[in-house]
Sequence to fold (299 residues):
Amino acid sequence: MMSQIHHGASESFWVSSALIFASLVYLRGWLRLRSHAYNNIEDWRAGGFAFGVLFIWIATASPLAALDHDMLTAHMAQHLLLMTLAPPLILLGMPRKPRAPGLLQRFVHAISRPLKSGTMQQLTSVLTHPVVCWLAAAGTLVLWHIPSVFMLGLRSQTWHGVERASFLAMGLLFWSPVIRPLQHSWKWPESSILLYLFLATLPCDILSGFLVFCDRVVYPVFLSSPRSFGLSALEDQQCAGALMWTCVTIVYLVAGAVFTARLLSPHRFPHRLEDLAIPQFDSQRIAEQHTDSHGMKAV
Fold:
């Protein structure tokens, strides 16, 4: 027990340090872009990125992370934070057209050059295809909730870390066709995003419904866990299923509502979720148009 506590504290320290470093790098880049008058990262994007990082910290390094071995509800909350809440916020926080001044720009160009090869572009196109993203996310969700695989993550800190990393990675992959922070080479109808989100709820609904209505404890390890918050193991399981059912439904409903509003009123709503920010106007172009209009009136 003492070894597990020590390992958990050490892991929380390193995870917190990595998240703080990533946040500082993002903040420094955001400030540099604003100081160079690029203005391609709006304030709300920085806030979204900050909340995404905060959700990752809550799931992996906060006191909630210490409860995942005792409560299935806490374990489920981790999964939802890493796969459903943090990834879209992180992707929304990314600039639509990343630009980096000076030495950083040359560094980004150097590391991105190998990624521009034909093979890498084809691989990226395959990995970011909506069908692949959906299957990868659904497969990861189902795999880690198989009782034998679930127990593997509880018994081994290494596999527990792999579990968390896979949920975050698959969450980013799943939300990339919806948020689309970067332009992809493939095109697909906007209305298919609604079908994509609807189909994504099915594995979650099946799993959460099974946990809620099952009359036995699916993961017997929680039978011997301390009774936190006065919940029995079966009640804890039902609470975890209800949490998953509610959270996934609300998040996907909000995302679907944005696109439905766009489809019904194409002239009033943004074309993509990433375009919710107020556009940055080119003052020079506006001035030229204003001058041209005065010239036409004079003529």
In short: The chain has eleven helices and no strands. The two ends are 86 Å apart (CA to CA). The chain has one domain: 2-97+119-270. Residues 1-7, 100-104, 276-299 have pLDDT under 50 and may be disordered.
